[in-house]
Amino acid sequence: MVTDPERVVITENIAGSDVDLMYVEVWDGLYAPIGMRTPPGEGPFPVVLLASGNGGEGMSWVRDACANRGYIMDRLIDAGYACAWLRYRTEVELGYNNGGPLIRDMRQGRELFNRSPLEYEDEIAIIEHLKTLPIVDPQRIALIGMSHGGEMVMKITSEYHGVACAIASEPASHEYLALMPDETAFVDETTQMRNIESMLMRETDKVRRRIDQTTARDRIGGISTPILVMGRDTDELQGIFRLNYELLEEAGKDVEWVSYDHPLHGYIYPMRGQSGDYEVDDVQREAIAHMVDYLDQKLA
User: Considering the entire predicted model, what is its pTM?
Assistant: First the structure.
């Protein structure tokens, strides 16, 4: 345990593995929790950062992920990668579209922002912090994001160029692509926020017709990071996943596509079952092996 109040690191044995639980300062002085594992040896190691979903829940979520979604960490450790589950602030509905670029200024000797940082900016702050650690190879950091975490990959790489590669699995990039939902989405009368839980966007052509192509292409134009986009054949948002790839490919980016037929949203992150063992099938093993091969190529 390190007791420096400004760099809190607590090492805890979680499900048989030592995990460094850290609180990382983000841009507005608040702290985001992560749980990091490293392979045997002294390092510095290449690092893979894991994100899933739309944020919130803090350190309890990180500890649960290390305990019950640790299969992906095991495979990355076996391949020689350090890895960390991240948590970040809760997603803000249309905050990325409506807030505009974050402007950081000074007033009376302290920072002044034009808006609060968003969840993907927390991940950038975490990346920058990890680059200062002696155990981390700052030139070999990769991202894996699933669902909203996949959309965060797109947001991050559009304006930040400090990672070696990224994997966007089932990227729910409807806000990033400026998608206008159809009648399968609606505004909740109580909250006045969009309910898109039942949105159907399976067909790529349908999604292409409903996005703001100028906005989407402008955002994608800023990307220089190699990206692997992963779809799920039967997902109701497969059209978004595929168009995410196609727009990157049309823009001449370093991008690859693969899709798997699996019933689980988030199949790249197998979970521990009630028996206490991970529930993993051959499709998931193949998908994870594909990801590790991709990381090996890009982080060599």
Answer: 0.95
